């Protein structure tokens, strides 16, 4: 049984505002826990294994978890709505972080990597929250709504790596290892984020937008989110364009960002310079998201993606031409994050606007899964490439990865950007 979907009305606007408030609250609390994995998680892996290679695999474990968790979470959203999917993702990540408390305290390798893998669900669900922000948004405000959720994710990126501070207080009080205490704080944060989504995301924005008790899933029973997304790409040129933009930007950003700390230290740079560079890169990725969202709504998806592409190309040219200058590399990383922000926000908004309702939620999970898989592959390949060549060559290869998107922007006419019924 279905009801008529909500139309443009004051009621829909009020529900959208309430949804955004809940998503912002959920995102702020949850991403604090997510921020632990790429920082404290790596430190724990290095401490337990006494091996830098294994420490690097800690980042791969959480990234792979995010990629693989995106599929079931997208499918769950398609079947039960955003509320169940978001809450399930946060609670899975909380369970992973709780397992990491045991792993860090007992110095256990296998539980360590299982926990990091499960924590990847936190990254996956924080990404899918941006799509939830567009379910009830008017077409002319989708970019701004999506960008708001991306922007508040900055809080987790900044606070998460610093959970050792409250972790030290817990450690002194209950006798847990410092790292175990930090993971305990992260587990509590993500569990609360799941509770916020489950208790307050009512009515469910995806179900309310389409007036359905259950959102139908397209295709034969058992088809996965990536399969649905690939099926959509075969017949939807706008979706193909959006996915190519998102994946291209992710590959380039992750490959260069991952290897920049290595390059800086090889050039004699200090740990402080590395930290400053990555922090400014993260600022470029997230801090300007609200502005990018407004530009997306005003200029259109294609124009905003083009701006992002030009910024990425400028970043890579700078990195290729001046690899020995620390200031130039810092500037290049800031531009890298900013270019990624333009393409990710505009590409995600475009994908949401052109994919039909029946496959939208599952396909969105497929996009995030594909993007994270490609990012993990790029990070894995970038190390040997940098070791065999140079930072300049790596930057030039990254320019090559942008050529398909560049060609599509130049030779193809703009695709329709309106919502697909």
Question: What would you note in describing this structure?
Answer:
By secondary structure, this protein is an all-alpha fold. The protein folds into two domains: 10-204, MFS general substrate transporter like domains (Growth Hormone, Chain: A); 223-415, MFS general substrate transporter like domains (Growth Hormone, Chain: A), CATH 1.20.1250. It has helices spanning 10-34, 37-49, 52-80, 82-106, 109-132, 142-159, 164-174, 178-200, 205-210, 225-235, 237-266, 271-286, 289-299, 301-321, 326-354, 357-388, 391-401, 403-411. α5 (109-132) packs antiparallel against α6 (142-159), α12 (271-286) packs parallel to α15 and α14 (301-321) runs antiparallel to α17. Mean pLDDT is 82; it is low at 1-7, 212-223 and 416-421.
The run of helices and strands is HHHHHHHHHHHHHHHHHH
Number of strands: 0
Distance between the termini: 19 Å
Q: Please, how many domains?
A: 2
Approximate strand percentage: under 5%
Helices and strands: which structural class?
Answer: mainly alpha
């Amino acid at each position: 049984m279905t009801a008529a979907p909500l139309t443009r009305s004051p009621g829909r606007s009020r529900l959208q505002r309430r949804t955004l408030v809940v998503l912002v609250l959920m995102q702020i609390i949850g991403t604090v826990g997510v921020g632990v994995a790429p920082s404290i998680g790596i430190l724990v892996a290095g401490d337990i294994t006494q091996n830098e290679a294994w420490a690097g695999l800690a980042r791969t474990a959480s990234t792979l978890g995010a990629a693989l968790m995106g599929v079931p979470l997208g499918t769950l959203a398609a079947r039960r709505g955003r509320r169940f999917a978001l809450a399930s993702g946060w609670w899975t990540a909380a369970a992973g972080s709780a397992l990491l408390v045991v792993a860090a305290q007992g110095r256990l390798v296998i539980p360590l990597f299982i926990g990091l893998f499960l924590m990847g669900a936190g990254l996956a669900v924080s990404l899918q929250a941006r799509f939830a922000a567009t379910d009830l948004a008017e077409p002319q405000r989708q970019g701004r709504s999506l960008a708001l959720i991306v922007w508040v994710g900055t809080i987790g990126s900044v606070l998460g790596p610093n959970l050792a501070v409250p972790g030290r207080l817990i450690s002194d009080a209950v006798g847990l290892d410092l790292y175990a205490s930090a993971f305990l704080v992260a587990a509590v944060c993500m569990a609360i984020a799941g509770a916020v989504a489950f208790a307050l995301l009512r009515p469910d924005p995806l179900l309310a937008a389409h007036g359905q008790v259950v959102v139908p899933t397209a295709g034969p029973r058992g088809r996965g989110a990536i399969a649905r997304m690939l099926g959509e790409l075969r017949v939807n040129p706008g979706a193909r364009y959006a996915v190519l933009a998102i994946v291209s930007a992710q590959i380039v950003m992750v490959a260069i960002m991952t290897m920049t700390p290595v390059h800086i230290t090889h050039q004699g740079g200090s740990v402080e310079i590395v930290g400053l560079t990555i922090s400014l890169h993260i600022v470029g990725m997230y801090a300007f998201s609200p502005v990018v969202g407004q530009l997306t709504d005003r200029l259109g998806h294609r124009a905003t993606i083009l701006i992002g592409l030009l910024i990425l190309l400028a970043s890579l040219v700078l990195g290729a031409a001046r690899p020995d200058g620390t200031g130039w590399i810092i500037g290049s990383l800031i531009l890298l994050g900013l270019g990624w922000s333009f393409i990710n926000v505009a590409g995600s908004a475009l994908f949401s606007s052109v994919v039909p309702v029946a496959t939208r939620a599952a396909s969105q999970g497929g996009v995030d899964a594909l993007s994270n898989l490609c990012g993990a592959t790029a990070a894995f390949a970038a190390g040997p490439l940098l070791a065999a060549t140079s930072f300049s060559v790596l930057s030039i290869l990254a320019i090559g990865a942008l050529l398909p998107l560049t060609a599509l922007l130049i030779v193809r006419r703009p695709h329709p950007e309106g919502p697909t019924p």
